[in-house]
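Reopening this ticket.

The earlier resolution said the output was attached, but the attachment link was broken on my side. Pasting everything inline this time so it's all in one place.
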Amino acid sequence: MSSLEAKRHTLAHLLAAAVKEKYPHAKPTIGPAIDTGFYYDFDFSGGAKPNEEDLAALAESMRSHLLSWATMQGARVSADEARTKFEGNPFKLELIDEISEKGEDITLYTAGDFTDLCRGGHAEKPSAEIDPDSFELDRVAGAYWRGDEKNPMLTRIYGLAFETKDELDAYLTQREEAKKRDHRKIGQDLDLFVISDLVGAGLPLFTPKGTLLRDTIADFLWTLNKKYGYGKVDIPHLAKPDLYKVSGHWDKYKDDGFQVHGRDKHFMLKPMNCPHHTQIYASRGRSYRDLPIRYFDVTKVYRDEQSGELMGLSRVLSITQDDGHVFCRPDQIATEVANIVSIIKDFYTAVGMLKENSYSARLSVRDPNTPEKYLGDVAVWDMAEQRLEEIGHAHGLQLTRGEGEAAFYGPKLDFMFKDAIGREWQLATIQLDFVQPERFNLDYTDETGNKVRPVMIHRAISGSLERFLSVMIEHYAGAFPLWLSPVQARVVPVSEKHAAYAKEVVAALEAAHIRADSDEANESLGKKIRHAKTEKIPYLLVVGDAEIAAKTVSVDSRDNGKLDPMSVADFIKRATEEITTRK
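Inline output:
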């Protein structure tokens, strides 16, 4: 049985066959498999092109064609034969020329009466292997040929494909739930952040409530790191290009970074923090007794992402990282990685994402076919990858292997977590680096008085704080646990004559470090309650004549419904315990 990727790739060709039948003037270009299905890009210039209302009919045509696709067979052909086959299609001719120049085989694959240029990787028996109910066409979008805005704009048709109809339906249900949880809408509804056209896309502005949320997470991260001996540092937002030329980031990021020119100075907005941290380490002599040295920083980096890729908080230009770096001896690596794993587990337990079968780890290593992408000696890389794998297994991590996912300076342990609706996110990371200490000539004096290189461990717990917040907003659908909620309790006076007591309650809560406010609007009690529930505030405390007389509050819990009336002191005790335990 062919893999799901092979089936998805086959379905891309099936889509091209259906499109060519309906739109003979269409010029197919490329059509790969992707994570949720497939797409195919077409040039429809000179005639009609499909819109989303046409997709259902095209999908039915695909199912009809599938019946006759008993096999899909490849044949190697000469460049001239391929050019003759695709005469009049400049996109295919460009691909043929590229393949020919590389000296690679040119192959055509045929199923039914449709033939396409392709490298292969298909279902061998499409009609027998592909469930006709396991796919559907999803949407139409624009896409530049080869992803270059200087090239012609094409029409991209996306399809969804899974092994079975049940899996397709489950994905569609998950996607509908994701739309309801869209962090951009919830962020606006809860007044957490703003995207301003005048400031620019990818540069979010956080409101007081959103900043409270950010600061609560950053403070918790600092609390966790401080326990393991990290020291907080602060670095500027830019540096001379020389710093990044030494580190190797210049070659990687110079075209994707922001260059800054002063009167007579040239700087770069930092795309990474690690080069700065090396200079703090290098500022004085170090002994083996000083190590490990651990730095913690919550700071921004800047990367010039393409405008079309920017989205809410999940893809931004200004990226806040909870960044940390450890400089240690080789014999300290295992302990330091163990400490970081403990921090990761504590953090993701608190945010509700460390549950059974809800997280995994990937050993991200080099792609042996592209050695030019990585800095450093091959033998050092082999040792670093082996060491990190051994440490991962020693800590009970069930590792998958990700070739080509390593950083350019070293292998990584990347941690993936599932949110409330089953989507997987890569968030935390631990990176083992023998390259940067060498490039920056970092050293310490060992027991024998010799100068030797430290090992550098990079680690991020939440990763990009903006992206992490987008995940959290959608994970909780805005209904944050008490410890994270910007407003933890709202006091609602039944009428104006109860406002003074409401203020007393708010003052008592704030004195106990519970974030509280009161709703004194000239509106009905029912409307005030509905408004608080719309804001997803965890606790609603109603006060009227009876509460004033008994010095109590009537408590409505967002998560547990109405509770018995209780004294303010008892509520403070209950809320404080919930905040402290982060449950």
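Reporter confirms the inline version is readable. The chain has three domains: 4-177, 186-235+287-475, 489-581. The domain at 186-235+287-475 is CATH 3.30.930.10 (BirA Bifunctional Protein; domain 2).
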